[in-house]
Specification:
- This protein is an alpha/beta fold.
- The protein has a single domain (2-206), classed as 3-Layer(aba) Sandwich (Rossmann fold), CATH 3.40.50.
- 37% of the residues lie in helices and 25% in strands.
- It is built from six helices and nine strands.
- It has a seven-stranded mixed β-sheet with strand order 3-2-1-4-5-6-7, sandwiched between helices.
- α1 (13-24) packs across α6 (169-193).
- Bound molecules: 5-O-phosphono-beta-D-ribofuranosylamine (GRF).
- 5-O-phosphono-beta-D-ribofuranosylamine binds next to α1, β5 and α6.
Length: 207
């Protein structure tokens, strides 16, 4: 049984997609053993509570400096003994020691087709604003393993979504979530939970 911990900062719709996937059987061999947020007001924490999933809030505001926060975050994570960490809209920079410790056992969902519209500053609505500004006809989402860079780790799954005339950033964001994020993130977890993914030479391979 794959022990999964989900790190969140916001509404938690991707967390909900994972919860639903475990409940409806589209994600097998998996248990969500914890949810951690840096934001005590994140509705994602409410979603965890509604589903009796252990939750922690580790906020940078509660620590004297970033290093103490990083240590507390890693300690909370280790306590949950995860096999896989899922970053689902987690807006905090992941400490290097965490990346090292959980190399190839930490994935992130990004709301674009990496390498487009990603990297520092590309998160949330900004990603969709830039896509509309550029006038691209296809956008989408990417699940990738987390490495020391920003959105630079091995790509595991991607799914394309069409841009429609008149799309606003909000409308496009919602379509990317509904048609891409909420599908490929659960699928990625199920693949990993069933031993179908390996990383070699910086590439994620689905067996
Ligand atoms: C999603 O758009 C995801 O792609 C991005 O952050 C957002 C999180 O939304 N990384 P939610 O908290 O899962 O609703």
């Amino acid at each position: 049984m794959l022990r999964v911990v989900v790190l969140v900062s916001g509404g938690g719709t991707n967390l909900q997609a994972i919860i639903d996937g475990v409940h409806n059987g589209s994600i097998t061999n998996t248990e969500i053993v914890g949810v951690i947020s840096n934001n005590k007001n994140a509705y994602a924490l409410e979603r965890a509570a509604q589903n009796q999933i252990p939750k922690r809030c580790i906020s940078p505001r509660d620590y004297e400096n970033r290093s103490l926060f990083n240590e507390a975050l890693l300690a909370a994570l280790d306590e949950m003994q995860p096999d896989l960490i899922v970053l689902a809209g987690f807006l905090v920079v992941i400490p290097e020691m965490m990346i090292t410790k959980y190399r190839n056992r930490m994935i992130n969902i990004h709301p674009s087709l990496i390498p487009s519209f990603c990297g520092t500053g590309f998160y949330g609505l900004k990603v969709h604003e830039k896509a509309l500004e550029r006038g691209v006809k296809v956008v989408g989402a990417t699940v990738h393993f987390v490495d020391e860079g920003t959105d630079t780790g091995p790509i595991l799954l991607q799914k394309a979504v069409e841009v429609a005339n008149g799309d606003t950033p909000e409308v496009l964001q919602r379509r990317v979530m509904e048609q891409a994020e909420w599908k490929i993130l659960p699928r990625a977890i199920d693949l990993i939970a069933n031993g179908k993914v390996r990383v070699a030479d910086g590439k994620a391979i689905i067996e």
